[in-house]
Amino acid sequence: MPELPEVQTTVNGINTRVLGMRIEDVWTSYVSRYYFGKNSIKDPKYFEYFHKNTVGATIKKAERRAKNILIHLDNSHTIVIHMKMTGHIMHGEYTFDARLGWSPKDKKGPLADPFNRFIRLCFTLDNGKHLVMSDMRRFASVSLYPSHEVGELFKKTGPEPLHDDFTFNNFLDAVSRKKGKVIKIVLLDQEVIAGVGNIYADESLWRAGIDPRSKVEKVPREKMKLLYLAVREVLKSGIDFGGDSMSDYRNIDGERGKFQEKHNAYKKKGHKCNKRGCKGVIERIVVGTRGTHFCPVHQERFV
DNA sequence: TGCAGTGTTGCTTC
DNA sequence: CGAAGCAACACTGC
């Protein structure tokens, strides 16, 4: 899923649904020969540690940092989740089957959406319901840290673009450290700005009228101002529409967001450009390694 | 049938 | 040593 707006929507959902609840049990089907980082529940040894320090604890508060979900517990530990491509977290009633794992009790509700199968992680809560993570591609990472160590994890992570004190000058400072690079690649760099991913990068550049292949230092200052504003507006809009469910993302209740209905560029190849008066047609190219969608007419290229 | 995909890490190569 | 490029993780939809 998960770019900033989807992660924020999930965090808001956790804060409205499961605050103050006690974790009675933890189950996972993540076991992987190959897992990212040292601390991952995909390592069975690590899962023992994770289990020991989460069961019995109470969920105090959820928070977002970049594309990570932080779930603070009352035992001075914090669960850190990165949902990568297909992870999404839901709350509801689930049943366990030894062969199939966890599945929703209500076979017709939103939780029964085919994209909501693939439950890899399940917390049983003291309200009799469950907090689960669906993750088709198994790319997600889940780990646990003493809460005071969490800040250290994000030492190199860039500023939060929706933070009140994130100014145009902050944006310029961050971005201009990347001289010689292509603007879209810079927007996707989590050490420059936290939380922007492929969808919102394409939408922001469309809105600001900048070709994604432009070199950072060649983009005029007034265009950079438009980009700064566009990034913030597009991310806010993503949150307002409940996230983007073009693919797997679902909210805490298993329902789709609506931002995919508002795209002007992302996955719009062959569509007439929506910008008023623009006669362009959206194209798809590859920038870096990522599929990139833009209007070759009104998005100006600076090289 | 084949390829692309909301993300990041860590390896290889230059 | 740094940067760039790319495979890997796994599975579905078009």
Description:
The protein is an alpha+beta fold. Helix content is 25%, strand content 22%. The protein has seven helices and twelve strands. The strands form four sheets. It has a four-stranded antiparallel β-sheet with strand order 1-8-9-5, covered by helices on one side. Helix 6 (198-208) packs across helix 7 (221-240). 40% of the residues are buried. The model has no long low-confidence stretch (mean pLDDT 94). The protein binds a DNA duplex (14 and 14 nucleotides) through residues 1-3, 6, 32, 34-37, 67, 82-86, 114-115, 118, 135-139, 141, 188, 190, 197-200, 244, 246-249, 266, 288-291.
Spans where pLDDT lies below 50 across 5 or more residues: none
Query: How large is the share of residues in beta strands?
Result: 15-25%
Distance between the termini: 32 Å
> N-to-C SSE series?
HEHEEEEEEEEEHHHHHEE
Q: How many beta-strand runs?
A: 12
Q: Which structural class fits the helix and strand makeup? A: alpha+beta
- Integer-rounded radius of gyration: 20 Å
Q: Could you tell me the mean pLDDT?
A: 94
Which of globular, elongated, flat, extended, rod-shaped describes the shape?
globular
Number of helices: 7
Strand order of the largest sheet: 1-8-9-5
Largest sheet: 4 strands, antiparallel
- Helical content band: 10-25%
